[in-house]
Amino acid sequence: METTMTRRVVVLAAAFAIVIAACSSGATSAPAGGASSAPAGGASSAPAGGASSAPSAAGSANLSGKTVTVYGAFGAPESDQFNLAVKPFEDATGVTVKYTGDKNFEQDLNVRIQAGNPPDVALLPQPGSMAQYAAQGKLVPLPADIVASIDTNYGPGWKEIGTAADGKVYGVFHRVNIKGMVFYPKVAFDAKGYTVPTTWDQLTALETKMAADGTPPWCIGLESGAASGWPATDWVEQLMLRTVGVAGYDKWTLHQIPFTDATVQNAVQIVSDIWTHPGWVYGGAPYMVATNFGDAPKNMFTTPPKCWLTDQGDFITSFFPDAAQKDLDNQVGVFPLPAYTAAGGAPIEVGGDQLVSFANRPEIWAFLKYMTTPQAGVSWEKAGGALFPYKNQDISNYPSKIYQQFAQTLASATEVRFDASDQMPAQVGSAGAFSKEMVNLFNGQEDIPTALKNIEAAWPSP
Question: Which of 91, 168, 246, 324 is the right S-S partner for 46, CB 3.0 to 4.6 Å?
Fold first, then answer.
């Protein structure tokens, strides 16, 4: 279990505004590389700047024939794109990168770690999990040259999210996502004469009109294996950003505002008012709770649509039917979830997967250094369905105007916050009580005060 100081320092770093700008300045000075190797599975003494004294990733050893095992939560089609993304590294080095996806990733990874059988590298979607494993001494901090490569290739903020309470950098971000985007089937939407809402009142009017026309406005699925319920946590986070602002959101993330606070109850109530409104969600609560998050949006693309809107991260396009994926700009429309009030604004919420290492070998460092470079995103950018945080990436690689817009939004955003549940302790976050209690709420087992009380009770004691 994390100490209070560990949680507070790490979450503070992640909760700061991530000003993801396409900076033109050069790399910051990297700390001098250390000499001695860090022990496998544990943290070494770090020089100033947060790098470890682990061996350089730029060693001259022949790595051909070596294997790096990578463990993560996503399966096909995302795993196929990940394999293509690492192929240039495999071809150049002779190293085999073996990725395994697991829908029960969070639980099974912890079991493997406790059994002394971790993967070489894990793709962690939760900074809180990184902080926990680093505090337990399970992770190896990054060598100085990988930290320097992060400084060169990423905008401000991403290194800080990958830094633990000990000041060492452990995480390399690869695929990231922008959340709070509302997707709709453009051709059918336009044919009905619907217009994109820019205010919350306009969104409510659109929901009402769609339901009156006989089709539920929202396509929602909460099933996601051991992490079922996380789409609900995203909605709550977006409403917290829109009702209490970034300062209140940061306090909530830090547990300075408890889940039982009236502001959190208000955000959940707003979500519930939409999701439980008669005729506003396709299939109602039973369907929503039982349906996979990636399957629910497919109902937008039937003829006629069974529902009209889905609020998700940009990655959801990879779950759309093939015809829609191949013609995104013409088949798919998108707009940001509007501000709840004119004064509240609509700050951007982001998430992402960071690679962390449980072992200390040259082929692992070579792989992770490759993953800090824009080349590691090119094939996936061109295929669509993913965004990357590299500040010098070629935005024209993205095949659709929609994704170019997402990438530019990330590059120019001034108020961005990382997914709150992913920063919270594992017992609470997107695979913990927050997600589970949202499922219990929307399947009718609990009311809002009970669900929030249970989430609050799951927060680890100091």
Answer: 168
> What is the domain extent for residue 29?
4-178+352-419
Assess whether 304 and 445 both reside in one domain.
yes
Domain match, 162 and 253 both: no
Q: Angle between the 262-275 and 433-442 helix axes, to the nearest 10 degrees?
A: 50
171 and 209 assigned to the same domain = no
pLDDT, tens only, 59-82: 446 999 999 999 999 999 899 999
Tens of pLDDT, residue by residue over 296-321, are: 999 999 999 999 999 999 989 989 99
- Reading the block at residue 76, the tokens are 């096909």
Q: Under a CB-based contact definition with an 8 Å cutoff, are residues 426 and 126 in contact?
A: yes
pTM: 0.73
Number of structural domains (the chain) is: 2
Give residue 412's pLDDT band: very low, low, confident or very high (50, 70, 90). Answer: low
What are the structure tokens assigned to 126, written together?
Answer: 């939760």
Residues 240 and 100 in one domain: no
Helix-then-strand count for the chain, H and E = 19, 9
The b/e string for 421-442 (b: 16+ C-beta within 10 A; e otherwise) is bbbbbbbbbbbbbbbbbbbbbb
Cβ neighbors of 202 (< 8 A, separation 6 or more) are 338
Highest mean pLDDT range out of 18-27, 237-246, 422-431? Answer: 237-246
